[in-house]
């Protein structure tokens, strides 16, 4: 009988026929000895369901849930949480690869932090890198993987476009695809909001922060993300999702006078990622005129890294 607690590996799948096999394979190769796998096919229009069913055939503690209608990532994640038997839930993306030691590493990080602090209201993120077709690898370090771990208000201010707390390690933020969380945390925080089509993970993080949650991470690489395109990754989908998040927390944004600023910054991002250079420039000028100090601080913190990152992505072949 296994003495280690059961970990549910949850994989959301939507039109991922080309990539879902490697995501499932990475789940099956985990060195942590006590797992179950739940794949939620969110009403894919390709043959993802058939591929997943064939891969999982005959594998104990693995099952496929097929949605009859598309619910978005949040809805698919809710199916995972409600059907999970594990004491912990680890989220895998349908186009990413989790290294064999991911679950064991994150489990150790959680147990070590709990033992050292007595805190159980927490979630753990993994470090890794994003792989591009030209060979470029963009490394990312997990939030809380170095001192000081963000706690409660630290994370809320970060998500409200406020200056970051000095000494707090925010890393790469709170992407759902590298998160592992004790299932009981969902009892306190609640399930995902299906209305947040691209920001369900940020919304969950804000609600966890409101409960005083701790945002920990493992510094060791455990996830390989792949740069991919899809309907859910279009600039307009991201724009509408980010605006929906701001509207959901309008009172919170307004309490720190960041409501209009956040919407203007999101519009700048939308024009930038949509390659609308003139509109992007005009939006940036408007931001500087309306909020000179806030814009300067955020622009100087994010723009140089972003420009270098995009230059590396654009190279035909990365040495």
Layout of helices and strands:
Elements: E1 7-13, H1 20-28, E2 35-41, H2 48-56, E3 62-66, H3 72-83, E4 88-92, E5 97-98, H4 102-117, E6 122-131, E7 137-140, H5 153-159, E8 179-182, H6 183-189, H7 200-210, E9 214-226, H8 235-248, H9 250-255, H10 259-273, H11 277-290, H12 292-314
Parallel strand pairs: 1-2, 1-4, 2-3, 6-9
Antiparallel strand pairs: 4-8, 5-9, 6-7, 6-8
Organism: Micavibrio aeruginosavorus
InterPro entries: Glyco_trans_2-like (IPR001173), Glycosyltransf_2 (IPR050834), Nucleotide-diphossugar_trans (IPR029044)
Keywords: Transferase
Q: Assign a percent range to the helix content.
A: 40-55%
Strand content: 15-25%
Low-confidence stretches: none
Q: If helices are DSSP runs of H or I spanning 4 or more residues, what is the number of helices?
A: 12
What's the structural domain tally?
2
Radius of gyration: 20 Å
Note the run of SSEs as H and E.
EHEHEHEEHEEHEHHEHHHHH
CATH architecture of the largest domain: Alpha-Beta Complex
Mean pLDDT: 95
The CATH superfamily of the largest domain is identified as Spore Coat Polysaccharide Biosynthesis Protein SpsA, Chain A
- Which CATH class of the largest domain is shown? Alpha Beta
Measured between the Cα atoms of the first and last residue, the distance is 49 Å
CATH fold-level label of the largest domain: Spore Coat Polysaccharide Biosynthesis Protein SpsA, Chain A
| Principal-axis shape | globular
Based on secondary structure, the structural category is alpha/beta
Main beta sheet: strand number and arrangement? 9 strands, mixed
Number of strand elements = 9
